[in-house]
Amino acid sequence: QVQLVESGGGLVQAGGSLRLSCAASGRISSSYSMGWFRQAPGKERDFVAVISWSRGITVYADSVKGRFTMSRDNAKNTAYLQMNSLKPEDTAVYYCAATPGWGLSEDKYDYWGQGTQVTVSS
């Protein structure tokens, strides 16, 4: 079983930056992928980014491409989401998730963190 804990959320002005962390308990298998999703009030949860644990291959949602960067530290069992050039529309609760495989849909993910609030002011 994998336990995930997000951190790093907060309030930031438009154009600013924030880095989210997702710490996993135990060891993440090389076959796993780690993803970030976000959910704004009244909206469905949307895919943000995913990274493969073995090779660090990344895929991003079009809405964040060029602004967000996902990375991981295998030794620390931690994934990161570096968010630059933040916009008010990025405001949401951000969730970290893990899957034994790979996917862009939330139903592919077996493990979820509790979420961390990101608020971008204009």
Task: Give a verbal description of the structure.
The chain is mainly β and about 120 residues long. It has no helices and eleven strands. It has strands at about 5, 10-15, 20-25, 35-40, 45-50, 60, 70-75, 80-85, 90-100, 110, 115-120. The strands form two sheets. Strands 2, 4, 5, 6, 9, 10 and 11 form a seven-stranded mixed β-sheet that branches. Strands 1-3-8-7 form a four-stranded antiparallel β-sheet, with no helix packed on it. The N and C termini lie far apart (about 40 Å).
Quick structural summary:
With 122 residues, this protein is mainly β.
Helix content: under 10%
Give the biggest beta sheet: 7 strands, mixed
- Judging from the principal axes of the Cα atoms, what is the shape? globular
Rounded to the nearest angstrom, the distance between the terminal CA atoms is 40 Å
Helix-strand string = EEEEEEEEEEE
E-strand count:
11
Name the structural class. Answer: mainly beta
Strand content: over 45%
Radius of gyration: 13 Å
- Overall residue-averaged pLDDT value: 96
Low-confidence residue ranges: none
Please work out how many helical segments DSSP would assign: 0
Give the helix/strand layout:
Blueprint: E1 4-7, E2 10-13, E3 18-24, E4 33-39, E5 46-52, E6 58-60, E7 68-73, E8 78-83, E9 92-99, E10 111-112, E11 116-121
Parallel strand pairs: 2-11
Antiparallel strand pairs: 1-3, 3-8, 4-5, 4-9, 5-6, 7-8, 9-10, 9-11
Keywords:
122 residues; four-stranded antiparallel beta sheet; seven-stranded mixed beta sheet; 0% helix
